[in-house]
Amino acid sequence: MIIDINMFRSRILVIVLFLGILSPSYGQNAILLAEQQISERQYLDAFQSLEEARLKGADAKVLISQVYLVLNYFIASDQHQAFSLMNLQIDDDLTALRADSSKRSMIPFNPDSLLFQALLEEPDNYDLHLALGHYYFEVFQHFGGKANYPESVLLGKMEMHLGLAYKQGHKNANSTLALGLKKLKDYQTRDAIPLLEEAVAFQPDLAIAYYNLAHAYALIGKRGKAIQRARLALEHYPEITLKVDAARLVADLYLQVENPAKALEFYRLADQMEPDNYQSLKMILHLERRLDTLGFLETRRRIYNLNPQKPRVYQDLYQWHGNWGALEELNDFLAEQIQADGEDTIARAYAHLFRAVIFKDLKNEESSAEEIKLAETGFQQVYPPSHEVFVFIRSFFKQEPKK
Q1: Looking at the 3D structure of the chain, how many domains does it have?
Q2: Which of 6, 229, 248, 287 is most buried, judged by most C-beta within 10 A?
Q3: Structural domain of residue 260, as residue ranges?
């Protein structure tokens, strides 16, 4: 028998290459390449590097790297079962790209089924459990009960896989955060606190954990700790809207420990970061009524100017001043606004209308009737007779039958 030595050599080469592909170093090399590409924000290239290795039989570490890649750096997602990824340019912003609603091409990639299949082969691979639990947590964060699973099933799967990994010491900031939030959701506050504290031990700038710790400590009456954690949330949140929410939480907690001056300080901080937020201004107004008369006058004017053409601002000011026993003061304020509003017909009409309401409360029927006429004259210039404001006037100011 004659052996073709060239054919023999080619077969040996194929076997060597095949073994090289399946060797652990091949998968590790793919992961190292992907990490480099991720550092350069070449997310699509990184995914393709990992995908090539995974399809050629690389170990589960490659799949796990892929899962974290798509969850952290996707541009768009279809229920987290297909993802859009991009290689970003220097000036590209991932958050801004996600906000763009234009259609993007999707790569089919379902971490749920892929990780589950991997677990069938390696049931004791707790890094797979950790990744799958992380996936369910991200689905809950982005889609809640609108995902393919009902919310209770989604959270149950998350807790099961993260819990299995946790017991074996496979945990990180994200997994301990998720387990802590699940405990809070289930009203297991005292069990949630150690998990959330562990999350910030892993990641000291994890604002969402501090924020929820503040709520948890407040629920069990440890308001000093709650304030400290809320202030850390305020410090570490990067987004203005979340910082404002944290500042208001700090202020609320200071109110609970009867420190209105500190509460006012943090409500004012929230107002500085997000001017003219109605909720912040409302609380500032109430605290300034107690602590800062000059500040109160300015804040009341700001609240009025938010939207003097809508009845809500008048209704709220009327209710608050009534609670303070200061309706005459509000009446004078509205008279000043009538002079200042100039050509704003609707604002002037509402100011007259609520002065009429106040005069009625003060038993000054003559002045109330005069204000009603002025209010109706103004409203008639802009509203049809069927408008609800005329219905209110007829109902509220109807003449009582004489006895």
Answers
A1: 2
A2: 229
A3: 175-274
